[in-house]
Amino acid sequence: MNTFNVPTREEVTDSNKAIFDNLEKAVGFVPNLFATYAHSENALGNYLELSNAKTSLKAKEKEVVNLAVSQVNNCVYCLSAHTAIGKMNGFNDEQILELRSGKASFDDKLDALARLAKNMTENRGATEPAVVANFLNAGWTKENLIDTIVLVGDKTISNYLHKTTNVPVDFPVAQPLEAATV
Fold first, then answer.
1. Which residues are CB-neighbours of 43 under 8 A, at least 6 positions away?
2. For the purposes of burial, counting CB atoms within 10 Å of the CB of 122, is it exposed (0-12), middle (13-18) or buried (19 or more)?
3. Could you tell me which residues come within 8 angstroms of residue 33 by beta carbon, excluding any fewer than 6 positions away?
4. What's this model's pTM, rounded to 2 decimal places?
5. Stretch 156-167: mean pLDDT
6. What tens digit of pLDDT does each residue of 54-96 get?
7. Residue 117: which of 127, 108, 107 has the closest Cα?
């Protein structure tokens, strides 16, 4: 049962109103999940600061992590949003499904990244040493490893927010992985 409303611009603080206005300009709308952060005076700004912080990962690489983590955490909102963003970053439907499963047979380096993100999330940070070694052997750096850990944390925050609030998904809804791969 959904007990959380998606706050409107009129229901949030002045600082969140400014963020809503910026999101409206940049994205064309305020995604429901971002609006839900605005139940807190500070959470939306803090989350966006983390999410938009400098990183050694390129946008396409970030989507690899976002898709793998959101699949492990079974977050339909984030899977839906990152399926759309993944397509904007050049992935096709088949590649997105594979990334959601924690693999990328179409690119060895992205495969190591997807496997790392999946394993790290499944094991709640106790990543298997062989997976970390595979990641580094694929050409990733220790900086990339640390930035991936931060990104896994970032995505987990949003996954948990949606799983707790169950606000409506305002992106084309991603199919369950099992249904999509049958």
1. 37
2. middle
3. 77, 78, 81, 158, 161, 162, 167
4. 0.95
5. 97
6. 999 999 999 999 999 999 999 999 999 999 999 999 999 999 9
7. 127
